[in-house]
Design a protein that fits this description.
This is CAAX prenyl protease 2/Lysostaphin resistance protein A-like domain-containing protein. It contains ten helices and three strands, in the order H-H-H-H-E-H-H-H-H-H-E-E-H. The protein has 262 residues and is mainly alpha-helical.
Length: 262
């Protein structure tokens, strides 16, 4: 009976965290301060409070100021940039596009966007790689927790706005991306690497390489095809997964054992 009550209280604690996190993000809209970074700060406060309720702190997910953890931000940033370059390059070949250099990059706008992307990606990382993910691993196991958190990560994105096949490919690519992030957390023992990876990936995806030339894009696609053949669509899906697999393999080569203590 005691075990049943204990298990119930632990699941209840997770439920409280799941409710408080969106409340924190919504509440930030009623504060007369910019959503970025107010939403992130409130979300971090919820994560910290939930860890403290179990006599833990942010060190449980490696979120501290230790140099070995802080160094993971630039490492993750570079890995995320290079991985997306690989993915985009393969995608361009499969689609029959041409990658062209943009001679009119606005560097002030470029660096402005570079820093704006950081807190927005960190918000998602604290939602799906923070307290809730850590707690779910302890209540179930790594595999179940990763699948659940990965599906939550997919649901945070607008994946149902167009062609159903494209939507499924997009959702699959997002799930592959989450597998990359979860591996980064589990192997390095620090959410800093997750934030760096996500930062590099999203910045490259949104601003560095684009379908049309923009103020921030270094490269853009020329001659983009509007209709893909079946084999091209399959090739694009494989390119998305190859992006994640390459990073996962590299992470597992650097950290051969799991360092996240759960």
């Amino acid at each position: 009976m005691k075990k049943v009550l204990s298990d119930y209280s632990e699941w209840l604690r997770l439920g409280v965290a799941i409710v408080l996190m969106p409340v924190a993000l919504i509440s930030s809209g009623f504060i007369n301060l910019p959503y970025v970074p107010m939403g992130l700060l409130l979300l971090m406060l919820v994560n910290w409070g939930m860890f403290r309720s179990e006599k833990m702190d942010f060190s449980a997910v490696g979120f501290d100021l230790k140099r070995r953890h802080m160094a993971l931000i630039p490492l993750g940033l570079v890995m995320g940039l290079l991985a997306y370059f690989l993915c985009y390059g393969l995608g361009a070949l499969i689609r029959g596009n041409e990658l062209r250099l943009n001679p009119d990059v606005n560097w002030n706008e470029f660096f402005k966007k570079f820093w704006i992307v950081l807190p927005t990606t960190a918000v998602q990382d604290f939602l799906v790689a923070g307290y809730c993910y850590h707690k779910l691993i302890r209540l179930t196991n790594v595999q179940i927790a990763t699948i659940v958190a990965g599906l939550c990560f997919v649901s945070m994105h607008d994946v149902w706005g167009g062609n159903i096949i494209n939507n499924l490919f997009y959702a699959s690519g997002l799930f592959a991306g989450y597998l990359m992030f979860s591996t980064a957390l589990l192997r390095s023992g620090s959410i800093w690497l997750v934030i760096g990876l996500h930062w590099g990936n999203n910045f490259t995806n949104s601003f560095v390489i684009t379908f049309k030339p923009t103020a921030t894009s270094w490269l853009y696609l020329h001659g983009a095809m509007q209709v893909f053949s079946t084999w091209q669509a399959i090739g694009l899906l494989l390119a998305f997964w190859l992006n994640a697999v390459c990073v996962i393999v590299l992470i597992r080569m650097i950290w051969r054992k799991r360092r996240l203590n759960v």
